[in-house]
Amino acid sequence: MDLNYSNEDLAFRIEVRAFLDAELPADLQQKVRKHLRLSKEDSVRWHKILAAKGWVAPGWPVEFGGPGWTATQRHIFEEECARAGTPQIMPFGVNMVAPVIMAFGSQAQKDYYLPRILSCEDWWCQGYSEPGAGSDLASLKTTAVRHADADGDYYLVNGQKTWTTLAQHADMIFCLVRTDTGVRKQEGISFLLIDMHSPGITVRPIIMLDEDHEVNEVFFDNVRVPASNLVGQENRGWTYAKYLLGHERTGIAAVGRSKRELAFVKTLAARENKSGLPLIEDPLFAAKLASLEIELMALEMTVLRVLARPNQAPGPEASVLKVRGTEIQQALSELMVEAVGPMALPFDPAYLEGEREHSLVGDDEAAPLLAHYFNYRKTSIYGGSNEIQRNIISQMILGL
Ligand SMILES: Cc1cc2nc3c(=O)[nH]c(=O)nc-3n(C[C@H](O)[C@H](O)[C@H](O)COP(=O)(O)OP(=O)(O)OC[C@H]3O[C@@H](n4cnc5c(N)ncnc54)[C@H](O)[C@@H]3O)c2cc1C
User: Fold this and answer.
1) What is the mean pLDDT of residues 12-36?
2) Taking the complete model, does pTM exceed 0.85, yes or no?
């Protein structure tokens, strides 16, 4: 693999940079760079700007509306977006359910859902976890029982999902459901696409300690789902679920964003003083920063190696990216707080939500950093906890 950029790649980087300079709204850029919270409208606005350019789904094949970029171009695009401070494209539609629909869905599902994912017509959420099924996901109990009447075949869905990210905005949920209880637990699971506006669905917020509404419980009470919303074959959902998780974990590595955050830590450390010297000259702090930068460079090489393999879905190596990517993100969030010290302490939800231009107390850049630090504790849990990823690495890569 040649890690030097070609002339075409360098030209592509200039093209992306020019596009971002012209099209990224300044208010969105400020929110991202200042670690403020983004609303649904913020996410949808940016999604539609990218969709209009044909750049919203870099990993999709051209036949479905992808831009046809090489792995290197996708990496450059991600890096430039992160550097500029764009909002993240919500992964649930573009990066998670879409690859499953492309690989295992019916032609009708591809024709209907994929264009709507590209245009952000539907906001998707992920219905995997349940109160008794997190790490042990195959223990899930939400049932889907098949029936037929004059209107056609359908499933009746009953049960509960939990930790469902941003379900309060969702039009659609992709759900793992139990369709057979008499077999090994992995063999009785199916993958259903469910309209969140269906009668019988209740979304209950789980409000975090920082008053943020990021996750929810979702209840299903006799929810009728057309049988045509089954993806692939009944009772084969575990295979599709694992395929999706490979895509989810590769995305979680977020190298570009970590590079921007690393640059931000350096700016903070150059500005803050410790014992009369800039913090960045403090040997202990400088050593932590340097070792993190090396870890990040190594992760970047690994991501490029995974992306460079043509037409191959991410396998267990996605777990390596998930573990290392989230460890680096968490370490960066710690260094930011360490750099600004007590200036990170103000808790000002109105400022975090972008409702007030300046923080009530202290430095605008420093005020959101503790909320960011606490929020980022989630990264080693979601997408499958890091302990479980280590089990996958030891069994499937190291053969232990
Ligand atoms: C912010 C956030 C957003 C989320 N969003 C979604 C979403 O949108 N959709 C969705 O479906 N899910 C979502 N999740 C759920 C997430 O995937 C689960 O929390 C995760 O899989 C862990 O499951 P659990 O919370 O039930 O923990 P448990 O499985 O109860 O685990 C508790 C602890 O025990 C450890 N552990 C368990 N089993 C083992 C083992 N065999 N070996 C070693 N250690 C073990 C775990 O690593 C963990 O540290 C989200 C979670 C968070 C925190």
Assistant:
1) 97
2) yes
